Task: inverse folding
DNA sequence: CTCTGTGCAAAGCGTTTGCAAACGA
DNA sequence: TCGTTTGCAAACGCTTTGCACAGAG
């Protein structure tokens, strides 16, 4: 079975990016959390890699976004978070507690409809459902 | 026929917000443009209302967002923009030229599916399709 | 009259940049 | 070795805040 490290290495090499411990650490944090903010990535990596700089995290997030390895998710009134591009899913955000969850929901039909209506070539879609999660519902009047 | 001004007044009064010329001007700019950034709102209003302050625009955008009169739209690698909450539509963004367009596309079925799968009460959805617009397609290899 | 909203200037914060040293290929 | 990446510190730009005054209800 292929290890994750090897996958990250291939992913980076394919895009002509060098494989550095910082980049691998960032990708590991993003994968293990699903979606995570820059500050949280930095805080977590610093525990095992104290010399890493916040600027390095920023630079790498930008580089890897440009290379379509990562993408950003932004729920209303929350920090930008990042996730791996190969995760095909939508998001649901609780307006009350702020949690952000992944939902396996196929958007390919809607993408086709949008392409037909607009004449655009559609190759991605970012979807965030806004609502109240089951836990918060219990606590409401 | 009811004027727009009256609508804005009612909208604000219903939410216990005072009707000020600044707020009405902001709402007018957002409505006429569909979606617009804070800086653009400020620049346009200043032409007819030179004394308005950027801080006032920020404060009002936040207040009216909290009151669910406005909502924000954020396409990847672009500034936050704002639109009226009563506009039910999705967005399509061209990755090449950056334009953002509205698309009348009904998401209510997808919202139901999401609610069923997650147990959330879903009351809104933010959708941005990413692609290449017809004009930019012509210029590509 | 009272409380909310406005304008200004300053502070705050997240993000980017420039540069020399370190590192990957 | 050569081009890329890192870390640091300073700079930047967007957003928020505090306060005195003005304005809406």
Result:
């Amino acid at each position: 079975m292929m290890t994750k490290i090897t996958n990250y290495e291939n992913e980076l090499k394919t895009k002509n990016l060098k494989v550095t411990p910082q980049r691998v650490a960032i990708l590991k944090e993003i994968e293990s959390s699903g979606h995570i903010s820059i500050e949280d990535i930095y805080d977590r990596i610093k525990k095992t890699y104290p010399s890493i700089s916040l600027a390095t995290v920023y630079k790498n997030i930008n580089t890897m976004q440009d290379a379509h390895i990562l993408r950003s998710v932004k729920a209303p009134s929350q920090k930008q978070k990042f996730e791996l591009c190969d995760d095909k899913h939508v998001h649901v955000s609780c307006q009350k507690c702020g949690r952000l969850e992944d939902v396996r929901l196929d958007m390919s039909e809607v993408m086709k409809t949008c392409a037909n209506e607009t004449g655009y070539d559609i190759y991605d879609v970012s979807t965030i459902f806004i609502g109240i999660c089951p836990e918060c519902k219990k606590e409401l009047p």
